[in-house]
Amino acid sequence: MRTRDVLLGVDELPRHEAVRLLMLATGRTRPDVLLGFDVTPVEREAFASFVERRRSNEPLQYIEGIVAFGPVELQVELRVDDRVLIPRPETEYLFEQVVEIVDNPGVIIDLCTGSGNLALALKAAFPTAEVYAVELSPDAADVARENAIHNNLDVDVLVGDLFGPLPGELMGTVDLVVSNPPYLARHELVDLPRDVLAEPEMALIAGETGDEVLAKIADGAYQWLAPGGVVACEISEFQGLRAAVLFDRYDASIVEDLTGRVRYVIGSRGFE
Ligand SMILES: C[S@@+](CC[C@H](N)C(=O)[O-])C[C@H]1O[C@@H](n2cnc3c(N)ncnc32)[C@H](O)[C@@H]1O
Predict the structure, then answer these.
(1) How far is the CA of 116 from the centre of ligand 1 (A)?
(2) Model-level pTM greater than 0.90?
(3) How much of the chain is in helix, strand and coil states, percent to nearest 5?
(4) Whose CA is nearest to atom 10 of ligand 1?
């Protein structure tokens, strides 16, 4: 059966998703799939099983098992599965802004590292920096460690609550604290698309208000940062006012994404 006929048999998925799943099932490129070739029965069976998983709302990226993160020249390739959040384009934009702002950092901390996306891309951007990645979920930390090995990047992945597992001697010496923390309130769970619900709840929900983890980062980062050090976090589009209050002792700005939605708080510790 030709690729076109295989794709026509799947009307329950958007075509671009069906194409990606057929690429995965056959190991062929997008142009190959679009130009057409004969799909073997074994490949058709694999494709059918991927389509079934997607129909059950498993995210496409979990089925593919791999995502790229960061601009081409600093890109890392991440293995992802249901132990970690799928890195989002908004977080790539946080990374890009941080790389513009920070100059030759010596020590970097990524809190709530998940797949390790920010920590690993920052290590790629600043190879001489000491990079620490902290994650509460031991399963997610395993994924971050696997990704560090896969990308041949030396990042120290620590399991624990925010600043808790960091070596104490780093206090007051850190040049950059980044985080894409969980920032949803529990009641927002019901509004999420079903495939987002397949991602770990711990990666999405901060608590009853959604501000809980951000508040702890705002509170803790001050003492870990060196004078002039930068803290940069992703926030929800409804958290701008709250973030401005939480980060009021920093020289902080609430920053919009490329679509004009408030999505980041970026600040620095003063030199006093
Ligand atoms: C929104 S996800 C972000 C993952 C990744 N940094 C990214 O950008 O895709 C938040 C991550 O923080 C972890 N996490 C939640 N609470 C935490 C805490 N108190 N300390 C450390 N990690 C935490 C979750 O397990 C999850 O992996």
Answers:
(1) 10
(2) yes
(3) 45, 20, 35
(4) 203
Alpha carbon of residue 123 to chain centroid? 15
For residue 20, the surrounding DSSP H or E stretch is helix 15-26
For residue 7, report the distance from its CA to the centre of ligand 1, in Å.
Answer: 37
Reduce the secondary structure of 168-229 to three states and give it as a string: HHHCCCEEEEEECCCCEEHHHHHHCCCCHHHCCHHHHEEECCCCHHHHHHHHHHHHHEEEEE
Half-sphere exposure of 8 (CA within 13 A, CB side): 6
Extents of the domains making up the chain? 3-56, 83-268
* CB 161 less than 6 A from any atom of ligand 1: yes
- What is the chain's pLDDT, residue by residue, as a tens digit (272 residues)? 999 999 998 988 999 999 999 999 999 999 999 999 999 999 999 999 999 999 999 999 999 999 999 999 899 999 999 999 999 999 999 999 999 999 999 999 999 999 999 999 999 999 999 999 999 999 999 999 999 999 999 999 999 999 999 999 999 999 999 999 999 999 999 999 999 999 999 999 999 999 999 999 999 999 999 999 999 999 999 999 999 999 999 999 999 999 999 999 999 998 86
Q: Is the domain covering 83-268 a CATH 3.30.365.10 domain?
A: no
The answer to whether the CB of 117 is under 6 A from ligand 1 is yes
Instruction: State which of 62, 93, 97, 112 you would mutate to test the pocket of ligand 1, scoring each by most atoms of that ligand within 8 A of its C-beta.
Output: 112
Q: Is the CB of 202 under 6 A from ligand 1?
A: yes
Ligand 1 binding pocket includes 236 (Cβ within 6 Å): no
* Cβ of 210 less than 6 Å from ligand 1: no
**DSSP character at residue 258:** T
